[in-house]
Amino acid sequence: MSHLAAAAEQGFLSPTGVEIAFLLVGIATLGAAVVTVTTKQLVHAALWLVVALGGLAVEYLLLTAEFIAWVQVLIYVGSVVVLLLFGLMLTKAPIGRSPDADSGNRWAALTVAVAAAAALVWVVVDAFRTQWIDLDGPAQGSTRVTGEFLFQHWVLPFEALSVLLLAALVGAIVLSRKSDNDKEQR
Amino acid sequence: MHLAYPAVLAALLFCTGLYGVLARRNAILVLMSVELMLNAVNLNLVAFDVWLRDTLHAGQALTLFTIAIAAAEIGIGLSIVLMVYRNRGTSDVDKLRDTAEGPAADDEASAMADKAAQEAAQKAEAAA
């Protein structure tokens, strides 16, 4: 019941330094995400996605999950965004503004998103109003801790995941390879 | 730290991604929005793992698995989008309506698809 004790000590109107940093980085992350889904320049969307994902890495650091923060930088900022940029280039995406980046159901999408956001934020705030995360003590996601729990308790899923990655690799190669039948038909 | 900060941020990021998935027309931009949604879920997992002080650290392990699966998903998704682009000459999800039911005549649709495929083939050969 340490949470209740922590809740009694802390107030809503006295944010700590970590909370202020989290809030500022969160606003930047959310702004970058909004620009990502609304900008009409396709390449800029990928570059704003880098800002959003990097901001999330900083949030992981503030939550003391260091290893996940660096994995986020390596995998998402390093490879996923590069893959997306490759995809944009290979599909000959226009470099300038493309007026048809959004489809016609934009207003329906906006309605659904705003309704979902209102419902989720209301439920989450109502449910966790009196809960505090205790960030004191040793980091809970340092590389040592991560290695220990990953290879003590999660070895089998980890190995299964490597098989999945191999299958995805082979599948991507098979899908993007030009088959010999195509050439004969031409 | 108050638990509401990461939870609310994750909810808002998820809804931003939801808007992108529904409103975007280019398939690659849809994939970007899916990445945003997955990242919102990851933030939730990490925040609740740190909050619960789980000895198994299920949240952080699941986050690592989600990141790996997202990388696999983006690879497969992009190769599918590239194949569609090569066959149809477009990656706009609005224009891929072959399986849609509607008043559009089948002959016209298939003729247009053939024409687009020929154009794509010519483009590919020209590029090669």
TrEMBL record, chain A:
The chain crosses the membrane at residues 20-38, 45-63, 69-95, 107-125, 154-176. This is NADH-quinone oxidoreductase subunit J. It is a multi-pass membrane protein. Gene3D superfamilies: NADH-ubiquinone/plastoquinone oxidoreductase chain 6, subunit NuoJ (1.20.120.1200). Belongs to the complex I subunit 6 family. The lineage of its organism: Bacteria, Bacillati, Actinomycetota, Actinomycetes, Kitasatosporales. It is an enzyme of class 7 (translocase). It is found in: Cell membrane. InterPro entries: NADH_UbQ/plastoQ_OxRdtase_su6, Nuo/plastoQ_OxRdtase_6_NuoJ. NDH-1 shuttles electrons from NADH, via FMN and iron-sulfur (Fe-S) centers, to quinones in the respiratory chain. Couples the redox reaction to proton translocation (for every two electrons transferred, four hydrogen ions are translocated across the cytoplasmic membrane), and thus conserves the redox energy in a proton gradient. It comes from Streptomyces chryseus. It catalyses: a quinone + NADH + 5 H(+)(in) = a quinol + NAD(+) + 4 H(+)(out). Keywords: Cell membrane, Membrane, NAD, Quinone, Transmembrane, Transmembrane helix. Its EC number is 7.1.1.-.
UniProtKB/TrEMBL annotation, chain B:
Residues 110-128 have a biased composition (Low complexity). Its EC number is 7.1.1.-. This is NADH-quinone oxidoreductase subunit K. It comes from Streptomyces chryseus. Keywords: Cell membrane, Membrane, NAD, Quinone, Translocase, Transmembrane, Transmembrane helix, Transport. InterPro entries: NADH_UbQ_OxRdtase_chain4L/K (IPR001133), NUOK/Mnh_C1-like (IPR039428). The keyword Transmembrane helix applies. The lineage of its organism: Bacteria, Bacillati, Actinomycetota, Actinomycetes, Kitasatosporales. NDH-1 is composed of 14 different subunits. Subunits NuoA, H, J, K, L, M, N constitute the membrane sector of the complex. Residues 94-128 are annotated as: Disordered. It is a multi-pass membrane protein.
